[in-house]
Amino acid sequence: MKYIFSLWLLLFTTPCFANTVVLGWNPSNDVIGYKIYQSTTGVKPYTQIGTSTLAGYTIPNLEDGVQYYFAVTAYNQYTESDYSNVVQLEIPYSPTDLVLILDNLSLSGINKIIIRPR
Predict the structure, then answer these.
(1) Band of the pLDDT at 29, cuts 50, 70, 90?
(2) Angle CA(55)–CA(11)–CA(4) in degrees, nearest 5?
(3) Domain range spanning residue 77?
(4) Domain count, the chain
(5) Is residue 89 a part of any domain in this protein?
(6) Which residues pair with 113 in a beta bridge?
(7) C-alpha pair distances (Å), 20 with each of 9, 12, 58, 66
(8) Which residues are bridge partners to 90 per DSSP?
């Protein structure tokens, strides 16, 4: 069984949906559901993180600064399809997550420290 469908994503970084990704794809005919897979290395096989009977899936609480790879398969009572196209996403660091503590530190000759999220 080889179903070809397109996988896309939306990333929410607002406080009420912090680091939440919504995956969506074109539905396939003759399927029972879809299996959602994730990796942080991009190396297959990915880890199954959920299933859906709809053409979408929400993944909350992703970690700042981590590179994620997502893929979906369709399945029926007989078999499972190949992975969909893989979507790649790096969750950006939130500026509120940066903390600098300088305690009893001598910075002779240094008058400025610049910190930038990567």
Answers:
(1) confident
(2) 35
(3) 7-93
(4) 1
(5) yes
(6) none
(7) 10, 5, 7, 13
(8) 67
CB burial of residue 118 (10 Å; 0-12, 13-18, 19+): exposed
Question: Residue 42 belongs to a domain with what CATH number?
Answer: 2.60.40.10
Q: How far apart are CA 83 and CA 23, in angstroms?
A: 14
CB 87 within 8 A of CB 9: yes
The structure tokens 């909350």 sit at 60
- Cβ neighbours of 106 (radius 10 Å): 6
* Token pair in block for residue 69: 């790879």
Tens-digit pLDDT profile for residues 54-95 = 988 888 888 888 889 988 999 999 999 988 888 888 877 765
